[in-house]
Amino acid sequence: MLTALDLGLIYGLMALGVYLTFRVLDIADLTVDSSFTTGAAVAAVMITAGRDPLLATLCGFLAGAIAGTVTGLLHVAAGIHPLLAGILTQIGLYSINLRILGKANVPLLRGVDTVLTPLRDAGLVGTWASIGAFAVLLALVTTCFNWFLSTQIGLGMRATGDNEGMARAQGVATGTMKIGGLALSNGLVAASGALIAQYQGYADISMGIGLIVAGLASVIIGTALIGSRGVWVTSLFVVLGSIIYRAIIQLALSVDVLDVNDMKLISAIIVFLALMLPRLSFFARVRERRRARTLPPEPDITHSAEERDNDKVVL
Hints:
Blueprint: H1 2-24, H2 32-48, H3 53-76, H4 82-101, E1 105-107, H5 117-121, H6 128-149, H7 152-162, H8 164-169, H9 174-200, E2 202-204, H10 211-226, H11 231-253, H12 263-276, H13 281-294, H14 305-314
Helix pairs in contact: 1-6, 1-9, 1-10, 1-11, 2-3, 2-4, 2-9, 3-4, 3-9, 6-11, 7-9, 10-11, 10-12, 11-12
């Protein structure tokens, strides 16, 4: 279970990226499945070549950002539907990832230093110490992420996702906002892939297949728990959704009837339950009470008889 918490925190970076496109920009980006592998491949190849692990992780982030930029250009410049643009980039990246790796699998275990080497040498991976380290890292990234969404550019991205026509009428370059948002989103996803490769000790060409399901599950679980709130609270619960998702996967795999081959089926069931969660009567009542508190009170247009007589006198 501690390993599941580790993975949940690392995958929290991926969940933030999916949240940016799926909730903020209102775009279902399927580039995630391949940009995750791109980050892992770039980091693995650079680390095995003797490069600094931190630099390799940063380059993985940049490679994912480039992939997201390609998706954004296909959508904005070429006028392709964002869903199809993501699929095209995803398919093309599969071959590019094979080119980067050189083979289907690149190990990172024997005599290779990674960002997790100090923790691994001390035997702290999969303990509360590694959980604390990943939690601090994710807290820093989440803080920077939320700060960015509070800047003028971030507000432009949020406005583009809320109402693109209105944002364009207010002078927001909505096309640029989409490209920038897709680049940042896939950069976070690729950084998560780079860290996962170093945590698991290998980068594999198929490690990102179906990852969009895990990302959507994390976002849906997190938003189902908190409802509609500000980006600070929502992003925190999206990360919490990633941890919950990994914990559920670990618990499900611990059942004797299920094994690793059933992981995709378990993921689909979790997403289905997460989609049904907000429709439960308890959560529906919570949302209604919260909406009633946030809506302004209706103006009182009734007048007493004395006030009506005074109005007549004035007239």
